[in-house]
Amino acid sequence: MNFEQLLYVEVLAQHDSMQKAAEVLHISKSGLSLAINQFERELGVRLFDKSSAGTQLTLEGGQLLSSISDILSFKNNLENTAAIVANPKRYQRISIHYMNTMLKSFINTFIDNYASKFKNAQFDISCHEFESIVRCVHNQEIDAGFIAINNIQDAAIKGLVFTPVCDSKLVLLCAPDNFLNTLGRPITLENLKKQQFSIFNDKFHDEIFEKLQFQCGPLSLILRIDDAWAMNKAIIKLNTVCFGRILQGDLSSNPNFSNLKTIDIGHIIDDNFKLGWLTNPNYMISEKTQELLQDITTEIKKDAQ
């Protein structure tokens, strides 16, 4: 048994065709068939059934495929880790999770400084909910998380380090033609009762929505989402309103998001939030990662001015 045979099985399972798999693997069809047959003899299990419809995994082959994929994944991880260990200054993986729409400053900072600072770095960044970010930082699965929080003493981040970057107010975002823009006065709970809400997947937005319902009764919630483009479309096309922090428009990768109107709600609920980095004091962050975090921080502070 060797890794080459495992790869052959995985590729053949993906394509259900000996000819297509052979083309992907850049070997002959007969060579692939021979390798598969030899592997089946070694395992004592028939992995594929061949017919006029193609080459399909058997029931036994399907049961073994996940283990084969795991072995190949472990091999790749081992090789990547070995490359980093052998030359740590050349290879660097930086992993960051962020909340909601706040992507622009992160990716622009990395791309704009890639040639001069991060040429040998791999930047893994993705959007997650607050609870997921806290869990990943706590489990040392990522280098850092960028979160918004309205109480830095929140028990959810106990044992972790929160480093504030800037303050931001929570507002109500709506379309330019929403009647809330024509009031010329602070909105009331009665005004909110007439609105349809779309909400980002955000623990704090959920809590605020529930508090508002305690005050004014059931509110209409029609959409939950974590994508800026989808939220912008819902607000414009469906005339919904959503909670958002003032900086979200500036930090969003969707240029239209900053064109939404903002309605102050500080007289109704606590609208004070802090944006910043969440890290684990027991996790050693590399110098390259620290440099990227500092550069991103500088960029965000510019947007916050």
UniProtKB/TrEMBL annotation:
Q: Read off the Pfam families from this record.
A: HTH_1, LysR_substrate
Domain of life the protein comes from? Bacteria
Q: Which InterPro entries match?
A: LysR_HTH_N, LysR_subst-bd, WH-like_DNA-bd_sf, WH_DNA-bd_sf
Q: Which PROSITE patterns match?
A: HTH_LYSR
What Gene3D superfamilies does the database record attribute to this sequence? Answer: 3.40.190.290, Winged helix-like DNA-binding domain superfamily/Winged helix DNA-binding domain (1.10.10.10)
Ranges for domain HTH lysR-type: 1-58
- Write out the GO MF terms: DNA-binding transcription factor activity; transcription cis-regulatory region binding
Q: Which UniProt keywords apply?
A: DNA-binding, Transcription, Transcription regulation
**Family membership:** Belongs to the LysR transcriptional regulatory family.
Protein name per the record: Fhu operon transcription regulator
